[in-house]
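Listing S7. Sequence submitted for prediction.
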Amino acid sequence: MSERRKRLSETLKAYAFLAPSALFWLVFFFIPVIWLIQYSFYDFQFTTASKFIGTGYYARLFRDGVFQRALLNTFKYAIIQVPSVVLISFILANLINQTVRGITLFRLIYYIPVVTSMVIVGTTWRWMYQTDGLLNAMLKSMGLSGVAWLTNPRAALPSVAGVGVWKSAGYFMMLYFAGLQSIPNELFEAAVIDGANWFQRIIHITIPQVKRFTVMIVLLAFIEALQVFSTVMVMTEGGPGGATDVVSFFVYRQAFQFLKFGYANAAAMILLVVTALASVVYFYVVLGRGQSEDL
């Protein structure tokens, strides 16, 4: 009897520790998602009674040229950001994976953008991207013509994506760094004895050994790219001419500028489904492969 009471007490303690986190997820995630699903099927207005319209908003979205453009821009943003951030973070991780004096300072410097407010980052880069900004001043000093970074429809989205890469590269760098730290030094020592140079060690040892981290980083970066909002909001507000309009910013405008809350919920639901599918792939790849490797 005492053993049963002891187990019951330990179980209750475990639930007590889990309760705050579970309550947080219930209030700020699960309930809002349920409301999101519910109101995406209603013509929801604050001033009038809600009217059930079924899948009407979803059918309208896929006929809406503005939404189609925002969805396309979102995937374009991901196509630009994901390969760039994977490559840059991998290079940075290899640079900081050294034992030279002062390397901790460089690790800190590379990570600073990650913890910097997006409002500060966006405002700073918007100033740098201006016609008379720092980047154009550097180009002109080298005898080159300036670029309309944020006012040219062709250059605006890559420019915004570049800021996203700059801000998030430090985070993914640390993930890669953790992977590099897990590679046995004996592999590199044996490669050096066999006459392999630095580039050959990267190709034949480092890249295969961090393959699992690369898959994880690709999926995380893709999910992050789908949810981009602050960068667009601060730097371009979807312009010029909708060239940087993404789904999350489309949702924001429909809800808070045009007060079309049901329509915004339907658009957010589509983004949620795409993000959820990417998350399922992430957990399958990372957790599934991890369990199979353990076996």
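Caption to Listing S7: primary sequence and predicted structure tokens for the chain studied. Residues 64-294 form a domain with the MetI-like fold fold (CATH 1.10.3720.10). The first strand starts at residue 42 and ends at 43.
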